[in-house]
Amino acid sequence: MTGFRIDRRSLLAAAGGLPLIASAAGAAIPKAEGQPLAGKFNLPDPPKERMRWAVVGLGSFAVGQMMPGFIAASHARMTAFVSGSPDKARDLGTRYGVSKFYDYITFDRIADDKEIDAVYIALPVALHAEYTIRALKAGKHVLCEKPMASTVAECEAMIAAAKTANRQLGIAYRVHFEPNNMDAIKRLRAGEIGDLRYFSGEAGFVANPDYPPHKWRLQKTLAGGGSMYDIGIYALNAALWTVDETPVSVSAVYSTPANDPRFKEVEGGVEWRLRFPSGISAQGASSYCWTYATRQRFFGAQGSISMDPASDYNQINMTMQHADLTPVTLRAGNPAVQFSAQIDAFCVAAAANQPHQTPGEMGLRDIRIIQAIYKSADANGQIVTL
Ligand code: NDP
To answer: For 178-205, what is each residue's pLDDT tens digit?
Structure first.
């Protein structure tokens, strides 16, 4: 098998440069910042020594999705748990053969632990920056959950810490490793629906203030923002991945139900629209007030692709249709592999000290645009130039 290859043009983009590409009309369009880096999934054979991981924050997503992903991965092995709940950590340690435990106070001692190469951070958003930076200072690579952090300044500090430590920082945009989403992008790039003209994406669920994983999501000091931070970010990230241009402006309006006591600190819903230099527009909506839904549609000059759900853990439905309006069902693989695929890709990149496919720069870009979405919504939909 060949090694994991990094696309050099995209590397430049992640490094902060903005290489220019030619649009269909011939004009120079600034390529999107923070775009996914690698174009190849030819991972090398599993090494004898797998990358050794500490998992930080043993909550619903880490336990329910990522730990099975670590077990299914070929290049990774969990060696330590970091938790404020020692009993839970020990129980999980028994289940997964992990025998090293740290808490949030002893965390910095991982610097001396030779059995930890990388750290996966699955804490509430407001804690991402602190634990990412502490892990990088301890000399470990970091895969941090989305959204990257509460503020642009925190994202920048995380990227700077990775550079100083000469370690890799990836943001866990798992959908970039999901076979059907990858297939949709491949078909778009291959022109199967003609030139892309418009993207729309909606994502939401009903936030329950009595359910602990939702409780912190409704507190700005822990969540950073509301539905757009947590679930709306999928459609935003998909729009940027798809269109692959730097947007010029954004407008947005809130759609939070009036007088809903859940939404004193963060928005319950927001609808946004991005405009791109080539004339393509993308729009999306996120909500904490809808029944669970994740949907994406791509409209081209000669056809369209619909995904519903688009970013689920286990189920993705995808159809493509052309002028005869007959939907063709597309199935590119089992969505459940996205967790192990993401972990393996990170391991291979970090082992070569190469950037992860979804790097810190991508997380920063998305937080920057979400902040502009909020700015526009705060001003009742005024267009904000990016
Ligand atoms: P949970 O509330 O279930 O888990 C968070 C864990 O963080 C807790 O269980 C706890 O673990 C630890 N923690 C430390 N300090 C606090 C605190 N002050 N309040 C609450 N928890 C604390 O949340 P999720 O698992 O749903 O989300 C965790 C992260 O994963 C978030 O960044 C979220 O955005 C991301 N996520 C990503 C998804 C994806 O598809 N990529 C899907 C869902 C979430 P302990 O008891 O071990 O200390």
So the answer is: 999 999 999 999 999 999 999 999 999 9
Q: Which of 55, 58, 60, 61 gets mutated to test ligand 1 (max ligand atoms within 8 A of its CB)?
A: 61
**Are 60 and 230 contacting, i.e. CB atoms less than 8 angstroms apart?**
no
- pLDDT tens digits along 211-243: 999 999 999 999 999 999 999 999 999 999 999
Q: pTM of this prediction?
A: 0.91
List strands edge to edge, sheet with 249-254: 328-330, 318-321, 304-307, 289-300, 196-206, 281-287, 269-275, 249-254, 384-385
Using a 6 Å CB cutoff, which residues line ligand 1?
Answer: 57-62, 83-85, 88, 122-125, 127, 145-146, 172, 174, 212-213, 216, 222, 230
Measured between alpha carbons, how far is 181 from 288 in angstroms, rounded to an integer? 24
* pLDDT of 371 strictly over 70: yes
Q: Which atom of ligand 1 is nearest to the CA of 82?
A: 47
**Position in ligand 1 atom list of the atom nearest CA 311:** 40
Instruction: Take atom 11 of ligand 1 and give the residue whose Cα is closest.
Output: 57
Q: Are 358 and 130 in contact (CB under 8 A)?
A: no
For the CA of 215, the closest atom of ligand 1 is 2
CA distance 108 to 103: 9
pLDDT in tens, 68-91: 999 999 999 999 999 999 999 999
CA 219 to CA 254: how far, in whole Å? 17
